[in-house]
Amino acid sequence: MNILLISTNRNVFPMPVMPIGACMVAEACERAGHRVALLDLMFERQPYEAVSNAILSSRPDVVGLSVRNIDNNDMRDTAFFLEDLRRMVNTVREHCDAPVILGGAALAVMPEAILRFCEVSCGVLGDGETVFPLLLDRIAEGEPFGDIPGIAYVDHDGFNSTPCPAQGDITECGAPGYHRWVDVQAYRSQLATAPLQTKLGCAFQCVYCTYRKIEGNGHRLAKPGSVADAVARLAGSGLRDIELADSVFNVPYEHARGVCEALATIKHGARLQSLELNPRSFDDGLVSAMERAGFAGMGLTVESASDRVLEGLRKGFTTREVHNAAEVMGRHRIPCAWIFLLGGPGETR
After folding, report:
1. For the chain, N or C: smaller number of CB within 10 Å?
2. Quick check: 199 and 173 in contact, CB under 8 A?
3. pLDDT tens per residue, range 223-239
4. What Å distances lie between residue 1 and 88, 94, 137, 345, CA to CA?
């Protein structure tokens, strides 16, 4: 079938993010034998016109819209992105009769509300590169799809969802060919990094976080050697600024050390960073391994230096670990961003 994928994210603050999920889904659909076009709206000045033109040129049998964000998380100046999404869905329907499927991180957070708001009947909750090709097979054959693991849908009985498929460890690290699908130079001109994940899932219970709903609460780990190979491929294609965009890079600790050791054995030439490190599994051995691996920057998501607030946020660590992390960083030269969250449970003015 002809498949049109649309990456709908246009939020450039604090910097544009390359759509790793949409690119991986595009390549999975190609492997399944479909003809795929991907429209990235990040830099489109006339996004609805771009959608119209893409439909006319690709004549899709199915249109998939990847939805990254619900809003901008700014209480003072909130931008609600789903209004644009609903208009995008209507634009698609004005130009073709193809089924519209939603997917992406935002849909996993509140699937029923988003499907109903956009008047779309079906969405993908599980890993898109696995679930979406299965859904396409059913659509191509004209067969029911309500039993496919990892989907959500609305029918005459109301809202339904199926549990995401159980998966073990990831055997290979997925590194899509970004140059094939998006305007890499436009992203690089605005300081964007190339995202790469060494694992999926998060076992923490932070009260504000959606990672568990998006990726699950169990870890699915990529083989460290495959992470090193993926970094080498990206760097070899000219993408030398790479962000390991795990929910928490250094948990499990031994996996993070293994990834660093694998990276240290090759001359990849990349500038690595991860902005999601937890102070609970943090020591000189890890930071030294990151230095040898080629990390040029990192971030510690401590959120607070108050035990009362940390407990309210259910962070799973105390100020003891926060202060230890500061002492560790004082002995190393990797630039570190300290990430704090204001206004959590128990916070005072």
Report:
1. C
2. no
3. 999 999 999 999 999 99
4. 22, 20, 9, 50
